[in-house]
Automatic annotation (TrEMBL):
Keywords: Hydrolase, Magnesium, Metal-binding, Nuclease. Residues 1-116 form the PIN domain. InterPro entries: PIN-like_dom_sf, PIN_dom, Type_II_TA_system_RNase. This is PIN domain-containing protein. The lineage of its organism: Archaea, Candidatus Iainarchaeota, Candidatus Iainarchaeia, Candidatus Iainarchaeales, Candidatus Iainarchaeaceae. Belongs to the PINc/VapC protein family. Its cofactor is Mg(2+). It comes from Candidatus Iainarchaeum sp.
Amino acid sequence: MLLDTNAWIEYFKGTKKGLQVREILHSKQCYTCSISLAELSEWIEKENIDRSEKLNGVKSQSTIVFPDARTLESAGIIKCRKRKTFKDFGMIDAIILATAKTYGLQIVTGDSHFKDENVFML
C-alpha cells in the first residue's frame, strides 16, 4: 500500500484516521512516494515540529519509491485528466497517483482528490 502524504499527517497527529494508518503500517507492506517527503517536510516546517523524528519514521516504517521518467510523463497526463473533475488537482497528487499505478499499489489517503482510483479511503 502506498501511503499518501495525507495518511502520514493523520498518523503523526494521532487522529482516528491516523489509528487506521497505524494498523496498516503494522499489518501490510507499506510504501511512500519520494515526493511525499517534500510535502511532509513542508507540513513539519509549518507545524514547527521535530523534522528528523518524523521523516526518519516515514523512512523506517515504509519503503520509499521513486517515480521514473515514464511515471513522471504519465503524471502530466493524469493531472490534465483529473483537472476535468477537480480544478485544484495538483502535480504532486498526480505524481503520487502515477507512482501508485506504476508500482501496482493501492493508495491509503483521506484526500478526496483520489476518489474513483484504487484507494483505501481513511
